[in-house]
Write a structure and sequence with these properties.
The protein is an alpha/beta fold. 35% of the residues lie in helices and 21% in strands. The protein has 15 helices and 14 strands. The strands form 2 sheets. The chain has an 8-stranded mixed β-sheet, sandwiched between helices. Strands 13-12-9-10-11-14 form a 6-stranded mixed β-sheet, with helices on both faces. β10 and β11 form a beta hairpin. α2 crosses α3 and α11 crosses α12.
Length: 409
C-alpha cells in the first residue's frame, strides 16, 4: 500500500514493522504529523498482517482517541476502500477489506484505575497516543496484552520532563527494548506551510516552546511566565466593555485573590483585583465577608460568570445563595499554565496597570526544580491561580468542536 503525500520520516512508519523491532516510539513537536501517520500506518499494518484479531487504540481519554486518531484516519481508510463500522456503546471498531476483518477496541488511560479496563484482553498490537499523559500501570498493562505472535507496540507522544518514566524507561533504552525511535519536527508534516509553522512557534514560551516546538525533553525551571514584562502593561480601557467576569482563588488562612475581567471584542482585560492576606492582616474573613468584597469589586457591573476555586465549596454556596452565576474552576495546573501563557502571549488576556498583586506574583511564580515531575512551587500563587482559573473558563465557554461518529444501527 502506498503512503502518498507523507514525508520521508512519516513513511518510516509504514515499513518499520518489516524489520526486527518490537515497538516504535514517535516523539517530537506538536503538529508534526506523527499521530496521523502513525494511526494510518497502524491500521494498514494490522489489516495487511492479521485476520480476525483484536487490537487496542489508547489515549488519555476516549474523546482523545476519537478526536486525534479516528476523526482524521477513518475517512482516509474509507477512501482507500476499507469498510468501517463503529459500535460506540462498546468502544469498538470493526474494519474489513476483501476477505480480512479485524476488531479494534478503544481505551482511555487517564488514571490508576484504567489498567482494569484493558486487563484480560489478548491483542495483536496496541497503539498508545499521548503515552506521556498515561499512568505507567496502564501502559505496562497494555503492552502485556500484546501476546499474539508478531504483535507490535506503537507509541506516540509530545515530550515532558527528562525525569518522566517513559523517557527514562523507553526512549533512553529504545535499543535495549527492541524499539525504533523516531523524532519528529514540524518540518516532517508536509501539510504545514511555513506561515503556519511560524504561528505555532509564536504560541508557546519557555519550557513549552522547547517541548512543543523544538520537541525536547527538558526540565521546567525558572519563572513560569518568564516573558512577562510589567513595564509594557497598559492602563485599563475606560469604556467599551461588552462582558464582565470575576475569577476567585479562595483562602481562609492563605490569601484570597479575586480578579475583575472585562471583554472588549476578543480581548479580556484584568481591570481590577482584590487580594486579602489573613495572616498579614491578623484576621480571617467569613464567606459572607468575602462575598461582600466580591460585590464591591463588581461595582454594580453585570457579571456573567464567577469562576471559583473548585475546593471552595462553602464559598460557592454562599455566592449562589446571593444570586451570583457561579462555575467551579477547571484546576488542571499544567494545562492551565500552558493555556495562560499562550493567552498572554497572544494578547487575548491582558493584565492592566494597578493589578499590583498579580504583577508581584508574576515576578515570583517559579517551577519547583526539586520535584521529580513538572510542578510549580506552592507559593506566591494565589493571583496566579485565579488568573489560571479564568483562562480555563474561556476555553470551556468557547466549547470544543464535536467529532461526528457513526453509531451502531
Amino acid at each position: 500500500m502506498k503512503a502518498a503525500g507523507f514525508s520521508p520520516r512519516q513513511r518510516q512508519l509504514f515499513r518499520w514493522w518489516r524489520e526486527s523491532y518490537d515497538a516504535v516510539i514517535c516523539d517530537g513537536a506538536v503538529r508534526s504529523g506523527k499521530t496521523f501517520a502513525m494511526g494510518t500506518a497502524f491500521f494498514l499494518w494490522a489489516m495487511s498482517c492479521y485476520q480476525d484479531r483484536q487490537f487496542g487504540l489508547c489515549a488519555a481519554t476516549l474523546n482523545s482517541v476519537r478526536r486525534n486518531l479516528l476523526a482524521p484516519v477513518l475517512p482516509l481508510l474509507r477512501w482507500l476502500g476499507f469498510e468501517v463500522w463503529e459500535k460506540v456503546s462498546r468502544n469498538q471498531i470493526t474494519i474489513r477489506l476483501g476477505g480480512r476483518e479485524n476488531t479494534f477496541y478503544l481505551y482511555g488511560g487517564r488514571n490508576e484505575g484504567s489498567p482494569a479496563l484493558i486487563q484480560g484482553v489478548t491483542l495483536a498490537g496496541v497503539l498508545l497516543d499521548e503515552v506521556a499523559l498515561m499512568p505507567r500501570s496502564f501502559v505496562e498493562q497494555a503492552c502485556a496484552r500484546c501476546s499474539v505472535e508478531g504483535g507490535k507496540i506503537w507509541f506516540s507522544c509530545n515530550p515532558a520532563g527528562p525525569e518522566h518514566w517513559f523517557y527514562k524507561e523507553w526512549i533512553c533504552q529504545a535499543r535495549e527494548k527492541g524499539a525504533l525511535y523516531l523524532h519528529f519536527t514540524m518540518e516532517d508534516n508536509p501539510s504545514l506551510s511555513p506561515r503556519v509553522r511560524r504561528r505555532y512557534e509564536r504560541m508557546f514560551q519557555g519550557v513549552f516552546y522547547r517541548r512543543y516546538v523544538l520537541g525536547e525533553w527538558v526540565a521546567a525551571q525558572g519563572l513560569v511566565y518568564d516573558f512577562f514584562d510589567p513595564a509594557t502593561l497598559p492602563s485599563a480601557p475606560a469604556d467599551g466593555y461588552e462582558e464582565w467576569r470575576i475569577s476567585c482563588d479562595y483562602g481562609t488562612r492563605n490569601p484570597a485573590s479575586f480578579g475583575l475581567w472585562g471583554r472588549i471584542g476578543q480581548v479580556w482585560y484584568r481591570v481590577e483585583e482584590y487580594y486579602y492576606d489573613a495572616r498579614a492582616e491578623g484576621r480571617q474573613k467569613t464567606d459572607g465577608e468575602y462575598e461582600a468584597d466580591l460585590h464591591r469589586l463588581a461595582g454594580g457591573r453585570r457579571v456573567s460568570m464567577v469562576v471559583v476555586d473548585p475546593s471552595a465549596a462553602s464559598f460557592m454556596t454562599q455566592l449562589r445563595q446571593a444570586g451570583w452565576p457561579v462555575r467551579a474552576a477547571d484546576n488542571r495546573v499544567l494545562e492551565g499554565v500552558r493555556r495562560t501563557a499562550q493567552a498572554l502571549r497572544d494578547g487575548r488576556v491582558v493584565i492592566c496597570r494597578g493589578c499590583d498583586a498579580s504583577i508581584r506574583e508574576f515576578s515570583l511564580y517559579c517551577w519547583d526544580t526539586r520535584a521529580g515531575a513538572d510542578r510549580v512551587k506552592k507559593e506566591h500563587d494565589h493571583a496566579m491561580d485565579d488568573i489560571r482559573y479564568f483562562v480555563m473558563s474561556l476555553e470551556e465557554s468557547a466549547g470544543v468542536a464535536a467529532v461526528s461518529v457513526a453509531r451502531e444501527a
